[in-house]
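Folding problem:
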Amino acid sequence: MTFRRGQRVEIYRRSSDESWEPYMDEYIGARGVITDPDTSKNDPNDLIEVTLDEKGTHRFPQDCLRVVEG
């Protein structure tokens, strides 16, 4: 899936990517907006920058994200 800036997403599971850090577990279930999808590279292995509701901006692997409505 290709993510786009402005999409609402949820961190719905722990990633299998090696860039996943243990502290990221606290963000599972959080929702936010994609602020930098790295569209210039469009590499599915790149991290995506997400601004989480009331939790700041972080970079996450793509396999832990899913698009949500509203």
Summary: Strands lie at 8-11, 31-36, 48-52, 56-60, 65-67. Residues 7-67 form one domain. The chain has a mean pLDDT of 89.
